[in-house]
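Sequence design from tokenized structure. All designs in this work follow the same two-part layout: the structure record, then the generated sequence. An example of the structure record is given first.
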């Protein structure tokens, strides 16, 4: 049984899913029409960090860890920081209305 999220958090969860697939995409699956669920396994941790973080660095460090340790891909720290900032901007928009 999953947790039911309030509408604003559910919107953020879905937005993060889109960002991970279309923008972060460290192995290039979206450009090849790969499966949309490719990064679902990382989504809950990114979402949790996004809810409680105000500094994109925490999210970026997790994304870099996933890229290097789980996927065996070279780190792209600047890209991960950009994605983390994009996630927090979505949080401000969807949850805080800013």
């Amino acid at each position: 049984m999953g947790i039911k999220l309030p509408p604003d958090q559910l919107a953020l969860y879905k937005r993060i899913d889109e960002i991970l697939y279309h923008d972060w995409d460290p192995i290039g699956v979206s450009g090849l029409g790969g499966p949309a669920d490719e990064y679902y396994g990382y989504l809950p941790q990114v979402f949790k960090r996004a809810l409680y973080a105000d500094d994109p660095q925490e999210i970026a460090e997790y994304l870099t860890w996933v890229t290097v340790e789980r996927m065996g891909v070279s780190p792209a720290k600047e890209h991960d920081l950009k994605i983390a900032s994009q996630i927090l901007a979505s949080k401000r928009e969807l949850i805080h209305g800013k």
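The first helix runs from residue 7 to 24. We note this feature because it recurs in several other targets discussed in the main text.
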